[in-house]
Amino acid sequence: LHRRIYQMQVTAPATTVGSTSFNYSFSYLCLPDDKNVCIVDDIIRAMEEIQSARTSNQSVPILQYPITQLEDGRQAYIGHQLGGVQGWGPGGAVRGHGTGAKGEGVRSAKAVQLTYYLQSRSGLMDRVAGQWEKAFCSELSLFGALHPKLGLYPSTSSSLRTDFQFSSVLARRPLLASLGVCGVLAILCCSMRDCVRSKPWLGMLALLSVALSGLTAAGILNLTGATYNSTYLGIPFVMLGRS
Asked: CA 68, CA 242: separation in Å to the nearest integer?
């Protein structure tokens, strides 16, 4: 999968008359390090070293968890890149998932997280990076169809915006139910035994104003094409709490 993603190319259309289109791969769009090499996850480098050792009939290096050692002597933390790890116990015994001790060799893992970093230098690179992300999701769909036993879950910079745009269709009933519960709670919190001092409509108007302001902000983000951030997800709850 990593090899297919690394070799995947997207075509940028010609920007001016007479110019030709150009194919961009990950090696051109990636975020480089101080040695001008694409930044990739350490688990990929460790797996490449294991594959290279097997190909050349050499001793296979031990993949330790959560910190493993690479061929260049660097200590790499892979605790956030593997999930459901099963390690080797004393005497070669197999430990259960999640029961491996620190520094033991990895026998298997249920999940692997791979992250690909793209750089943004200009408007053209932003558009090409957006095309690459779409091609990335399509490539994972094709790879998942060829390997049905694998569960692939892509996440890009536009995933939050796409999920939010589909939330009105996918979460219509839960959203209406949540608004109904919030409306009842707002009325109850502003109600009192004294009919003169009781202000149930005030709670309803406060909830209505918060809902309209949240929808207006989301609409502005959609219309302007702003980049979504995970911190935006908690803003409606903060607004409800302050109201």
From this structure: 47
